Amino acid sequence: MELLLHMCCAPCSTYSVKRFRDLGYKIHGFFYNPNIHPYREFRKRLETLEFYCQQENIPLTVDKNYELEMFLTRAMENLAERCRRCYALRLRETARKAAELGYKRFSTTLAISPYQDHLLLQEAAQKAADEYGVEFIYEDLRPGYKESITLSKALNLYRQPYCGCIFSEKERYYKKKKKL
To answer: What is the pTM of this model?
Structure first.
């Protein structure tokens, strides 16, 4: 069985690929992440993923367009819904690409993160799957999160310190000072 796997980064892909292969899937990677900020972070994640896929013999299709403005426009329409909109943007494109390439199934490495909203993720993916006539394969990959860290460190892969978007970067680094 073939599976187009949306890959957000190499570290999240390590366990995800292992798990999907164990389930009998032949993986084809897809990188589409216009949310990543700044551009140097986008390039670093892509370069690391390309290295990983080469090491693991995984074909990888890459959308190198850096469409930050599109992501920000959608996110800014309703900041409280930014993650939902981000999932919809990336998974819709993955479903479209799956249909275009002739894949009947797709999934995402985002499902490994304990920091992602899995219900929103599944909802966005299912809507995209329905739109493009492909099947979304949801696998709760969170049990492998710690193993993905171990695997990525063993492979000496660049590990990013935040989800990717400017908003998650702010949440990671900006701490409001308490009033005295």
So the answer is: 0.90
